[in-house]
Description:
CATH class of the largest domain: Alpha Beta
Order of helices and strands: HHEEEEEHEEEEEHEHHEHHEE
Radius of gyration: 21 Å
Number of helices: 8
CATH architecture of the largest domain: 3-Layer(aba) Sandwich
Number of domains: 2
Distance between the termini: 26 Å
Mean pLDDT: 92
Number of strands: 14
Helix content: 25-40%
Amino acid sequence: MRVPSNSCVLSDLLDPRYRVEADDRGVLDLAPGWTRRWVMRWKTADGELVCAVRDAAEVPVEVCRPVRSFSWRTDQSHRPGLAAMVRTGRLHGFESLNERKLLLALDFLGDVQNLLSQPMTLRFTTSPTGSAAHTPDFLVVTGGGVWLLDVRPAGLIGAEDRVKFAATAELALACGWQYIVVAGWWSQVQATLDALSAARRQLQDPLGLQERLLAVARREPLPFGELVGQVPYPAIGRAHAVHLLWRRRLGMDLRFPLSDRCLVWAASRSADR
């Protein structure tokens, strides 16, 4: 299976792909009227905003804040922090290194218009009379719609997590959003994205090397080392080639590390951005 960097989507990068099981969905209270009974708690500069699931489309996500604050202590077991995203031009909070990896992948995939960490708390009911709450990790607004994302390594997903993920999937479906649980990545993806991210900032190109690289790559796919060797000043061309890979104007198979032997091709002209 090839994972083309110039055209892949988030689900293409994930292994395993998490799926909500019927047994987990079966314990949810989805009797008629559940979208009125299940509520969501958001946080804004003016205080809390509580609404039913059916009214989620009316929530002004752009003015919402994380429902949980991010804190740092010397004795904590997880690794929170702030990650800068080129696509949004802002810092975004994360609560673990796995969440930081997801933010890097979202920055690479592009089309992120807004991103909110710890966006809301969903309070839902289970049959016959139980109740539970869950705070998803991220809400991402893209040009193609809204994604609701949770991050949990596959080996750490327990029975309670599965029910919470099933409830969040129902919330997303009712709102017309996409829901993905990030439970694992293809083995090489994160290391490759980390290497490409070194050139994610905009580069000045007074020598016009980027167009030269694209012109060569449009003729035929080439190993990375051969591609940069066909333009003047290969050492400078190397940095611009990595930048074009990050911008998804050049493509490669993300299952393999970036090296001089890595096969690189040009994205279609309609994909150039």
